[in-house]
Amino acid sequence: MEKNVILSARDIVVNFKVRSRVLTAIRNVSLDLIEGETLAIVGESGSGKTVLTKTFTAMLEENGNVSQGKIFFEGRDLLTIKSNREWESIRGAKIATVFQDPMTSLNPIRTIGSQITEVIIKHQKKTKAEAKLMAIDLMDKVGIPHASTRFDEYPFQYSGGMRQRIVIAIALACHPKILICDEPTTALDVTIQAQIIQLIRQLQKEFGFTTVYITHDLGVVAAVADKVAVMYAGQIVEYGTVEDIYFNSKHPYTWALLSSLPQLGVKGELLFSIPGTPPSLYNKIKGDAFAPRNPYAMKIDFEEEPPFFQVSETHFAKTWLLDPRAPKTEMPEFIQNLHEKIEKKVSFEGKLNAK
Amino acid sequence: MPNKVLLSLRNVQVTFDVGRKKKFVAVEDVNFDIYEGETFALVGESGSGKTTIGRAIVRINETSKGEIYYDGKLINGRLNKAADSEVVRNIQMIFQDPAASLNERATVDYIVSEGLINFKLYKNQEDRRDKVRKALANVGLLEEHMTRYPHEFSGGQRQRIGIARALIMEPKLIVADEPISALDVSIRAQVLNLLKELQNSNKLTYLFIAHDLSVVRFISDRIAVIHLGRIVELCETEELFKNPLHPYTKSLLSAIPMPDPIYEKTKVPLFYDGSQHDYSVDKPSFVEISKEHYVWGNAKEIEQYKKQITE
After folding, report:
1. Considering CB atoms only, which of A242, A264, A345 is closest to B261?
2. Residue A295: which pLDDT band, with cuts at 50, 70 and 90?
3. Pair (A32, A155) in one structural domain
4. Closest chain A CA to residue B216
5. Is A170 domain-assigned?
6. If DSSP codes are grouped into helix, strand and coil, which group holds residue B65?
7. A265 and A213 both lie in a single domain
8. What is the pLDDT of residues A261-273, one digit of tens each?
9. Is A351 within 8 Å of B243 when comparing Cβ atoms?
10. pLDDT of residue B2
11. How far is B185 from chain A (nearest CA, A)?
């Protein structure tokens, strides 16, 4: 299958002015989105995952700006767009976003129906009646029962999971090419989370959009992603297929993230936790940003920023451990053979369907 | 396994008024014992009533039926002032959102010592500051943090302040209401470890409230699964993962996100629908189906569950 790059970000640097200081939130990031795939971006809060994707739709806060880089989409560099009007033909229409909290992204004093039709009327030049039919059809597709009667209800009459379905319906109203899901299930219960993940997967098959899925939960990533980008302190530190990341990760930060998952925890033992805190992005970072928290750090990690080393055709990691001169280092035993370990943990699986 | 029952709930019901006449039953018929030194988890989705139970235990929500006993003494309903403060001192709560549960206009020193001040639990100012220092050190914070305000801390540190505030009262039982749900993955591990260490060093008993079975499996000795205000299954942790019986428990298990793409991409999440139970004639009850394993069901269902467990 031919793999088309639908969006390509090159050497992105994002700065924020905070009072009189400058915070560099994104430090030279390049990233390709492959058409029809799901890319998951993982990292701690403050690692820049949301900021990076906001540059795709010019939704950075006012004090932020992209000071360097290019974002190619449909044959042009999005960062050359100056007017908001021009952005409106992209944002929402071609690149849509689903945010974390479905309560704050819906208007509480307008009906669900009017919030969906608004988008359709604005971007697709339909009449009110046509838009209503399309909206009900969309509500149906995202799994709202009795869509035509619930069309006139308000957000407070919907549960959290149902609201998030509506936000997804609004995002899909214009058949976007790219759907950015920014922690869409973090505020929801695990059972509802499982449903929303399934819904997004099923809609992706039907509509054929490309998904960027932002999350800090490596359990969720395993369920949604084709490709994974691990971010730390404003940079991508490891990139690969979902199998590369879970079964053959190379960056100590990815190891640390995997090791700290309570799903893998052993009763009676302490969980692995990453010592220290991420570096302040107000200061220029010397060497590898993760070095002070990295038990595998070498002298060079504190002096020089590592380049991206290619592990395989699909897999890249930004760590000096991959330099041929570095001592050979295996991933911690704790996260080796992850699949076999999880299989033991889910021994309840066979019982689930027992009647 | 410790055997002394520290907290005991019997047929507890909590209702909320809806308008003037109607009542909404938030939790009903809640029965469980918590043994001294154990971690007992209450797991369910939002709206299941798990937090309501926690709040009823610390006397924030009034109960409308049933009894709650702490160390053999009745602690719900009207209590005299001495008994009330005894409960408050012995049972402390840690809240979910470390940003919302701390007074943002107060210094850490004041936040942590508020309980001491309310109950006059210190000899003099020096003694009070000493206790605060010790409580902060216990959760890995420094003396210099005493003069700062909550907004100057990260989420994980704020949750530590919340824990220090509970610890300073030297409680026996801590009700931890989703203490890590609002935290980042890497911070979660730190806070979970801290709770475990404190349990060992201070001989604490926990009621751990959560919606995510994966965290609960790691930290708790026994689990009660609650759905729409009713406990549907209760047993030891590994037993629940080995022999889940109630269909709601199964749906929770199937929803755990596992860090394994092979498993995740083939699994089919189960959805629980309460209408699958027919309780019109055959009425359900809470039955001990095997040793220490309780499940809510009617005669016909219990029969099926028994078969499943022996398979």
Report:
1. A242
2. very high
3. yes
4. A262
5. yes
6. strand
7. no
8. 989 988 888 899 8
9. yes
10. 52
11. 7
Query: Is A203 found in the same domain as A135?
Result: yes
Domain that holds residue A281: 231-345
Predicted model pTM: 0.90
Report the domain count for chain A. 2
CATH number where A147 lies: 3.40.50.300
The architecture of the domain spanning B5-310 is 3-Layer(aba) Sandwich (3.40)
Among A200, A294, A348, A353, the strongest candidate for a mutation testing the B interface, having the largest count of B CBs within 10 A, is: A348
Are residues B260 and A263 in contact, defined by beta-carbon separation less than 8 angstroms?
A: no
Chain B closest CA to A187's CA: distance in Å?
9
**B157: closest CA of chain A, how far (Å):** 11
Please check whether residue A336 touches B, CB under 8 A. no
**In B168-310, which residue ranges form alpha helices assigned H by DSSP?**
185-202, 213-219, 237-242, 247-255, 261-266, 299-310
Q: Within the 121-160 window of chain A, which residues sit less than 8 Å (CB to CB) from chain B?
A: 160
* Residue boundaries of the structural domains of chain B: 5-310
Asked if the Cβ–Cβ distance from B242 to A351 is below 8 Å, we say yes
Give the B window 80-139 contacts with A, CB below 8 Å.
none
- Does the CB of A40 have a partner CB in chain B at under 8 Å? no
pLDDT tens across B34-85, in order?
999 999 999 998 889 999 999 999 999 999 999 999 999 999 988 898 899 8
Question: Where is the domain boundary, A169, A200, A225?
Answer: A225
Q: Comparing C-alpha atoms, which of A233, A261, A252, A264 is closest to residue A337? A: A264
Shortest CB distance from B45 goes to which of A191, A246, A353? A191
In contact, A211 and A179? CB cutoff 8 Å: yes
Q: Scan for tokens 């936040």, then name that residue.
A: B111
| Pair of tokens at residue B90 | 């012995």
**Where are the alpha helices (H) located in chain A, listed in sequence order?**
49-54, 84-88, 102-105, 112-124, 128-141, 147-150, 160-172, 190-207, 218-224, 242-247, 252-259, 338-345, 349-352
Q: Please indicate, yes or no, whether residues A268 and A214 belong to a single structural domain of this protein.
A: no
